[in-house]
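In response to the reviewer comment on reproducibility (Comment 2.3), we provide here a single inverse folding case reported in full, input and output, so that an independent group could reproduce the run without further information from us. The structure tokens appear first.
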């Protein structure tokens, strides 16, 4: 189902597409920012609630959003100093977090109007063409994202091609609260992450290498409540004001992360083709600036590692002409 959601200051209309029917997921997606506005899921008692943080109106996304549900790119996460060198040439990017470029810059993909290329009850494909030089990135990048809702699963498929060498790292920035959006914080959510390593960061939140999680509050190889260790006096928790780090996922198929809310009985399992996931606990959410309070949601942003264009020892994020970028992430919901 398609409906009008609002009009941008430019006069361009924004559409909302609703995917899914029946007793499974019901997901709303906007053409602005390719945003997942809502994810309605059942709980263990048979009730239903929206478990994704979002805004009720378009002005909310224009004025108060913190990447709620958005597709971020060209490069999700941070690039140190807002620059990188590729094939001997240095590119200066838009800097929007101190000296860093974050989530694609001042006007990343989250602030662009995408076009609906294919729409149905359970499937929506959106497209965007990012011109050469946009936010400082080289090459014209043709991108599509397909959202598919089947039963209790939300699948996200990304594809992209370029006409010149560039870097790319796409992800979705949904904040989840399995008790229901606006129902308090997520400190009681129980999290498991299939990762023996994570990426410690410096004061600018830039990593240098993968470190073992063993013996640290970053060890989620076994289930732990979010709030169990988040307040510990660990240097990395101090820098992040909580969890705001990338985990280096263990290789292989299967569930890469799992979240359970004991109150509602909802469970969310994460599958991905990406090598990492940024686990962020909404530390900077401010009820004075957003519709939600501190730690009202958590993010599991599947992606390559932060600052990979400047770290040749990290998995490469370079895309060249003739190649195709592909990435898939699945969120599977169930109840205990």
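Designed residues, in position order:
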């Amino acid at each position: 189902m398609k409906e009008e959601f609002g009009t941008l200051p430019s006069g361009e209309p924004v559409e909302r597409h609703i995917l899914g029917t029946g007793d499974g997921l019901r997901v709303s997606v906007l053409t602005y920012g390719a945003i997942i506005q809502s994810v309605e899921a059942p709980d263990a008692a048979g009730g239903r609630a929206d478990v994704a943080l979002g805004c009720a109106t378009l002005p909310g996304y224009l004025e108060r959003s913190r990447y709620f549900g958005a597709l971020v790119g060209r490069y999700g996460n941070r690039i140190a100093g807002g620059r990188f060198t590729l094939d001997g040439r240095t590119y200066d990017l838009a800097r929007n977090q101190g000296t860093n470029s974050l989530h694609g810059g001042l006007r990343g993909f989250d602030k662009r109007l995408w076009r609906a290329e294919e729409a149905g009850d359970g499937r929506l494909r959106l497209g965007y063409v990012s011109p050469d030089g946009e936010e400082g990135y080289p090459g014209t990048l043709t991108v599509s994202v397909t959202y598919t809702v089947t039963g209790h699963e939300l699948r996200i498929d990304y594809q992209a091609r370029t006409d010149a060498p560039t870097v790319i790292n796409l992800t979705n920035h949904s904040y989840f609260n399995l008790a229901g959006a606006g129902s308090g914080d997520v400190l009681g959510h129980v999290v498991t992450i299939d990762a023996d390593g994570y990426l410690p960061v410096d004061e600018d939140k830039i990593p240098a290498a993968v470190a073992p999680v063993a013996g640290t509050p970053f060890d989620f190889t076994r289930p732990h409540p979010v709030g169990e260790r988040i307040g510990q006096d660990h240097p990395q928790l101090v820098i992040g004001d909580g969890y705001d780090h990338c985990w280096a996922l263990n290789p292989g198929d299967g569930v890469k992360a799992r979240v359970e809310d004991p109150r509602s009985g909802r469970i969310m399992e994460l599958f991905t083709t990406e090598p990492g996931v940024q686990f962020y606990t909404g530390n900077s959410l401010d009820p004075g600036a957003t519709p939600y309070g501190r730690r009202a949601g958590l993010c599991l942003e599947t992606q390559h590692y932060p600052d990979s264009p400047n770290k040749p020892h990290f998995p490469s994020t370079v895309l060249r002409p003739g190649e195709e970028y592909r990435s898939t992430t699945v969120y599977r919901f169930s109840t205990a």
